[in-house]
Amino acid sequence: MANLHFTQQRYAGFRAAHDFDLITLEHALEIFTGSFYAPVRVIETEPILATYNSTDLELTFTLQEDLEIDGIDNLAVGDRVLVAGQTDLTQNGIYTVQVVGVDGTTATILERADDMNESEHLKDGKVVPVQEGDENENTRWRATIADTMPVLDTSNILFIKDITDVKRVVEDSFLMEGDDVEREWLFSHNWGIDTVTHEALLVSTGATVGIGFERVSNNQVKAYTTLPLETGVDIKVIIMGELDPTA
Question: Domain with 193 in it: what CATH number?
Fold first, then answer.
């Protein structure tokens, strides 16, 4: 019996500008009904050394250096950034990259995003999903504003990490190689979940085939065929699950 172990692949719950979009109907409805701001690519939780211009609603970095936030160093003009660590809490909010900094020649400039650049956009309890980052990928942050009627550039804005982060969809695959002997395969993952979905495809054609599956434990699933799998008939099994968020 073959034992296979796979490293999980993490996919963001929101990647509106990327190739593999994963968004649940629940999340979409929350955005449309106003519970969520549109996602940002990264969040900066430490103070940015910058000058804020209340007329242009811009943060201009003091240092001329390459732009990197939470380990992401390929940020581009138009990318959305959640600024959450300013010492002056009135400067916090959602920004878009207007100028990408270049080491020794150009300072980064961020401008308040269209959905958070007016007082009426400031909503206590509204959530911002974060797509990427070494520390904060797939997290979401809740705006906390004490003022009953917030005023942009006057009201303090805090962003608190939401413990109900966007759930992470994980996917892996393994190969059942036909040898005229084996009819059972045990594969393992480290997701710790009871239920996963499966899909079996013939490697030669990509056609879907029917095989049996049995959950052995929270981290093991057995795949099996009625008869030994013939030599040259290989099957690719894809498994997918949805992990509970991590704080």
Answer: 2.60.40
